[in-house]
Amino acid sequence: MDDTILVTRSSMPDIDEYMDEIKSMWESHWLTNMGPEHQKLQKELCSFLGVENIELFTNGHMALELTLQAMGLQGEVITTPFTFASTTHTIVRNGLEPVFCDIDPVTFTLDTDKLENLITDRTCAIMPVHVYGNICNVEEIDRIARKYELKVIYDAAHTFGETYKGKGVGSFGDASCFSFHATKVFNTIEGGAVTYRDKRLGEKLYELKNFGIHGPEEVSAVGANAKMNEFCAAMGLCNLKHVEEEISKRKIVVERYREHLEGIDGIQLNAFQPEVKSNYAYFPVIFEEKIFGSSRAEVFDALAEQGIIARKYFYPLTNTFSAFHGKYDVRETPAALHISKRVLTLPLYADLSLEDVDHICGIILKLRS
Ligand code: T4K
């Protein structure tokens, strides 16, 4: 058996549970286009996430991309480069201009002290990212957005099930876009969702994920095909039953990592956010070579030699992608650059054994000077 440890491993329900959930499809032959599983999952997610409105999508990327389209935005969108390719791409693919704000070096989310200076008369929206499940400074973002009448679309891909001050994270901003990809805390194989405030936005999202079809004889927008199918929705319904337990198991893994790595010179761990109910999505570690004694690359290689595959989420920064042909100046986001060159996200999933965590930390700690 291959005993490689990868950065994560998809959660899956018991196969019989899934078979039970999909059985009715062999009678109904209803496989997609907002069928009963889709509708049931929407309802259950609203209650689980503590939100009033939700639309499901094929993936988190289309959730983001179609939300920007649905808002009919034009001009500049302020965002951060310390994220997955998807965030920036959705802005560019909508014909909008990303303007990169630096990140806070402790939470790795948008540094709100640097936000206001980036606002111009072309700014139409802010797209902050709750990186690794760390909640952005939502109060300050809200204050600034109101002052300048800007839309706020959160990339909430990493924050499934989290709350801030007791409120579901999907209730902040005008919209929050979640990813239900196989690698996420909650998965529908591939999938995503938008939670939103204004019901009219929901109507547009519904149409845009279905080609822009408004009625039997009317197509009112140039939409896409981004509907979650019934098999994915069924996977979501099964996984949802176990997600609380999965998060509790992740918490135990994270606590074990912290026992080993907390307080080690040259190692920065994810900051604890006191008013956040965390989902323990990722375990990022920042290695300061000069203090720790080894570089991120050396740690990565030492782990890889033992079949442990950590990942550099998020390196390179999106504002350095060759796709953008040098259009953006990375010197404008120095904190993001600093962190992205030093971060390694360690393996984390519900069934990762504590012995494996001990082993991983043992390899890392051997490398300190
Ligand atoms: N915004 C943010 C901030 C995001 O992080 C993402 C996605 C999005 C937006 C867009 O959401 P989606 O459109 O993806 O729903 C992975 C995921 O594909 C991606 O969803 C995720 N972020 C990103 C951070 O990570 P890769 O290229 O690292 O995936 P991959 O194939 O290398 O998988 C990583 C590990 O996961 C594997 O080593 C093993 C495990 N795995 C993977 C797959 C595909 C499984 O256990 N099962 C699987 O089926 O991007």
The count of strands amounts to 15
CATH architecture of the largest domain: 3-Layer(aba) Sandwich
Report the end-to-end length measured between terminal Cα atoms: 35 Å
Order of helices and strands: HHHEHEHEEHEEEEEHEEHEEEHHHEH
What best-fitting shape do the alpha-carbon axes yield? globular
Helix content: 25-40%
Structural class: alpha/beta
Number of domains: 2
Fraction of residues in β-strands: 5-15%
Low-pLDDT runs of 5+ residues are none
Q: What's the mean pLDDT score?
A: 97
Largest sheet: 7 strands, mixed
Strand order of the largest sheet: 1-9-8-5-4-2-3
Bound molecules: ligand T4K
Radius of gyration: 21 Å
- Give the helix tally: 12
CATH superfamily of the largest domain: Type I PLP-dependent aspartate aminotransferase-like (Major domain)
| CATH topology category name of the largest domain | Aspartate Aminotransferase, domain 2
